[in-house]
Design a protein that fits this description.
Blueprint: E1 2-3, H1 10-17, H2 21-27, E2 29-33, H3 35-43, E3 48-54, H4 55-65, E4 72-75, H5 77-83, E5 92-97, E6 103-104, E7 121-124, H6 130-142, E8 147-151, H7 160-166, E9 175-178, H8 181-190, E10 194-198, E11 205-206, E12 216-220, H9 229-234, E13 237-240, H10 251-263
Parallel strand pairs: 1-4, 3-4, 6-9, 7-8, 7-12, 8-9, 10-12, 10-13, 11-13
Antiparallel strand pairs: 2-5, 3-5
């Protein structure tokens, strides 16, 4: 354990820089805060680079941190406030390495999906809000999804709001980023998956009016503009969630309803 008292310390400067995606990608490091996320990261073997604890945080969580003395830095509460993004910080901030063993950030075009076994896969196109993305990842973990595939236009999974909204599910969920969603959908269809977009369309089927089978993959799109015409044209059809007095739902709410409906079907 080491005490840091200067805001010009290089480790403090790094923690502040990692609030910016370009520095996260350059360093392949990300940050998250709070005792629950620390415990989730530890349980899922996320590789921690540094742990910063405020003096009050260290006093409260000393027993949880004792095994990490070699990477633990205790700092005064005012200095901790300068690197925290939380309104009510708990006094623990972790710097961790990108989770390459769990997440594949290469461009996916064609995967070998012809294995005779259908996975529960959910597609997200251009989800912009990190909070929505984190909530969807949390729901995917809760409802037993095998894989989440994001378009390259989605929010960053390493954004602090994404991680916080996921409640640590981002540490253990199989997440891929796809450079060409239409090509990926084509590969899914070649592997006998049925790809259905959640979108307002004249020929959209109402959720509950058709059977959701093991090979069904849903797509949810951007919060404002929805799913692109290209992705809709690549899919097998559209689904709408019937509702009263409103035209649409928040993207994370729509995704969670679709996931819940799928979860009722045995794998």
């Amino acid at each position: 354990m080491e005490y840091i008292t200067s805001k010009s310390n290089p480790k403090i400067a790094l923690a502040k820089k990692l609030q910016d995606k370009k520095y996260r990608d350059a360093e392949r490091l990300f940050i998250f805060e709070g005792i629950k996320l620390f415990c989730e990261a530890k349980d899922n073997k996320v590789e921690l680079e540094y742990i910063f604890a405020s003096e009050s945080g260290y006093s409260e969580y000393k027993s949880d941190l004792c095994a990490y003395d070699d990477i633990l830095y205790v700092i005064p509460d005012p200095l901790y406030g300068g690197i925290s993004c939380e309104n009510a910080p708990q006094g623990i901030l972790c710097v961790a390495k990108y989770i390459d063993k769990s997440h594949f950030f290469n461009t996916i075009i064609y995967e070998n999906l012809q294995n005779g076994k259908f996975e529960r896969i959910f597609l997200l196109e251009n989800i912009q809000d990190p909070g929505n993305l984190g909530t969807i990842i949390r729901c995917a973990a809760a409802f037993g999804y095998d894989k989440i595939v994001l378009s390259k236009g989605c929010a960053d999974i390493y954004h602090q709001r994404t991680i916080r909204a996921s409640m640590g599910a981002v540490f253990k969920t199989n997440i891929s980023v796809c450079g060409d969603m239409c090509a990926y959908i084509k590969s899914l269809k070649e592997a006998k998956y049925r790809v259905i977009c959640a979108a307002l369309s004249d020929d959209a089927e109402k959720l509950g009016s058709f059977e959701i089978e093991k090979n069904t993959v849903f797509v949810v799109g951007n919060e404002g503009s929805g799913i692109t015409k290209e992705v809709m044209a690549s899919s097998d059809g559209c689904v709408i969630i019937e509702m009263s007095n409103m035209e649409s739902l928040n993207a994370s709410v729509a995704a969670s309803i679709l996931m819940w409906e799928t979860s009722k079907m045995k794998k």
